Amino acid sequence: MDTPVLRLAAACLIASSAAMLPALPAAAAYPDKPVTVVVGYGPGGGADTLARLYAEKLSAELGRPFVVENKPGAGATLAAGEVARAAPDGYTLMVAPTAVFTITPNVRKVNYAPLKDFTPISTLATGMDVVIASKALPAASLPEFIALAKAHPGKYSFASSGLATSTHLMGEVFKEASGLDMLHVPYKSSNDYLPDLIEGRVALAFDPVLLNQVQAGKLRFMAVVGDDRLEDRPDVGTTREAGLDMTLAQNRLWYGIFAPAGLPPDIAARLAAAVGKASADPELAKRLEATGIRPSHTNGEAFATQIRNDADYYGGLIGKLGLKLAD
Q: CA 185, CA 260: separation in Å to the nearest integer?
């Protein structure tokens, strides 16, 4: 017998049953619109190149566009502050190198707290430590360049992709180890200083992304930072062979992907899993290795611990070098 009372009772039963069902995780519907990936440097640099390669893979894996936006300025700190203040919903992410989270906060006041204001999702890649030189220099090896620069103090300079970046700090360690009088010239990205490096207006740079220009015959791979030569480039000497001890700055270059603090754990896990799948892709590895970087996938608390350890390490190194930037 169908009565209003029976219909009301049935409706209440259905509603209460639905309420007892487990809620679907937020990641089940994520992403359902395009995702913005912020890069705090200009187009063409290491972070930008990496972000675009991974954005392509993440778009294919998660079914929505991952769109890279370049927002250069103040060594990527402006972009980092903007991302830190964004909604923690997974639709604003940031790809950044070591410097933004471990170097810059040690040398200047920034408008974000590296771990408090961000959710570290995963590392994306690690970079090779290299010395790249202009072919316009009258020096074919690192010992020849050191002799040349010592004979002409203050004449030669090195470029970086910005103040307080790993490419800047590597140059400062190089100056310390070699005793050379060299000027640091900061740019917004490696793409910005590339013409000056090719033409010899700046002499050196320390960015592995430049290896594709070495392969194109435009720059010289002057040395590997470290003790051992590369198996695939046995002709390239090392800084140790040139009499330099640069262990202070070795093996610390990484790139990671971050979200604002408060990102739901299931969305963080979904993004980390997608990054892990992309990192295992042989095609991606091949494309990255052409730029001197290798895929990497350290996520969750292990990545947060790495950031804390590297921040302590760079703090000590910066203190040793006496490096200080204006706020």
A: 32
